[in-house]
Amino acid sequence: MVAKSVAELLSEREGTRLDFKQDLSSMKRVLETVCSFLNTAGGTLVVGIEDQTRVVLGLDDVERQEEKLANAVASAIDPQPTVQLEIVTHEGHDLLLLRAAYAAGPFFVKDKGKDRGTFVRIGSNSLPASPEKVAELERARRMGAWDQEPMPGLTRNDLNRKAIKRWLDAVGERSTDAKLRGLGVLAEYAGQLVPTRAGIILFGREQAIHFPDAQIRCVVFRGVDKSRPVVRGEDNDVTVLDGIEEAMRFIERNTDTIVRITGRTRRDELDLYPNVAVREVLNNAVAHTDYAVEGASIFVALFSDRLEISSPGTWPPGFSREDFESGVSLRRNKAISRVLMRLGVIEGYGSGYDRVIAACRDEGYPEPEWIENGPQIKVIPRPHAASGLSSQPTTTSPPERARRPPQARMTMEERHAAVLAAIDELERPNTVNIQRRTGIPTRSLGRDLGYLREAGVIEFVGAPQTGFYRRK
């Protein structure tokens, strides 16, 4: 890939693969950014740019600054990474560019240790990685997949053979131990064939006991936010594989059909949401969800103006939204993806995005939004324009954001991202106005602020009653 010029970088927004820094005065934040690039999907750091206004300030004695940054990266990050440093001149100012490619880690800031010093990139923020994310980075280094690991305490009898036969019969395949081993449903452990995590998630007799969060939860909300749930999907014993059809039926039951008059005697009926695209999003959520994240399930939420399908987990290590949209394939769940491919649930690796977009365009639906929302990926299909409902993304100004309902169910990383965004936006961010801006409950916010202070991401300046928080 050809490296982008400074002019091209300045025309883009900060995000997963791009960050601007005014100087190297806060080396700690610079190192956290470098670590997050290495652990996520690579990226470019431009030093000498005011990150809010994009004013090109430049660096004095840029050769010494380059040496300072090179020494800091080499001595303060473990394992020692390989990065590319370059001095460039733009509009008469000297700038420093650091380019880091994704590499097998996890990389962490030494003086914080692996548990506290591993950072990942979520949007334009470099945040401490959760224990589950650190474990995923370590598996990526070993080239292992979480779903392929065996479950030694179980036997083949813990798999629902009738369900396996039903699914394989539908595609003309026989249910044999050799077949299931090849798919990654069974694995050898201590001389015996035992189910893998993928096998139990997809076909387990007691899947809800072993992986209670591996399911698709469905809720209808009255209005445009989550303050008033009115219909919840039934809790049942189906696996995520059978849950796809359950979720489609739930959406069908709780949405109206659009009747469109196209002539004097002709009436066309349309689904409120693009049926083919929604099924494809659900199929891909089952294939790519990070099932190692505890306390989070695939979540289908129907609002008055949109449908949201959220799945736990950020993009896999070494992967980004840009890769996803360009058709690059990187499977987090190798066994689950292999099974879904064989069963015809997914059609091809790396083709999901194009199929969703094509299905929407063919039927005249707005293209869905993909949002990295904390440690989850959210897809938002919009209603057909003929419905008369808004098909535009909902945007809120800062004062309106301050009045949104409490976010009691936000994950830790999602809360941290919201807190950091509030600190960046508010003039003198204290606990009271951060709470108003984010809607995070006061007790949770106190824990979050304490965690971010201990992690060295933020600091409190001034007296207890009149001081404020800022990034370090």
Search tags:
Heat Shock Protein 90; 18 helices; 4 domains; 36% helix; Methyltransferase, Cobalt-precorrin-4 Transmethylase, Domain 2; 6-stranded mixed beta sheet; single chain; 4-stranded mixed beta sheet; alpha+beta; 472 residues
**Number of domains in the coordinates?**
4
Strand proportion, as a percent range, falls in 15-25%
Q: Which fold name fills CATH's third level, the topology of the largest domain?
A: Heat Shock Protein 90
If you compute it from the alpha carbons, what radius of gyration comes out, rounded to the nearest whole angstrom?
24 Å
CATH class of the largest domain: Alpha Beta
CATH architecture of the largest domain: 2-Layer Sandwich
- The structure class reads alpha+beta
Helical proportion, percent range: 25-40%
Shape: globular
Taking the sheet with the most strands, its summary is: 6 strands, mixed
How widely separated are the two ends? 33 Å
Major beta sheet, strand line-up? 12-11-15-16-18-17
How many helical elements? 18
Q: List low-confidence stretches.
A: 394-408
How many β-strand stretches?
20
Mean pLDDT: 83
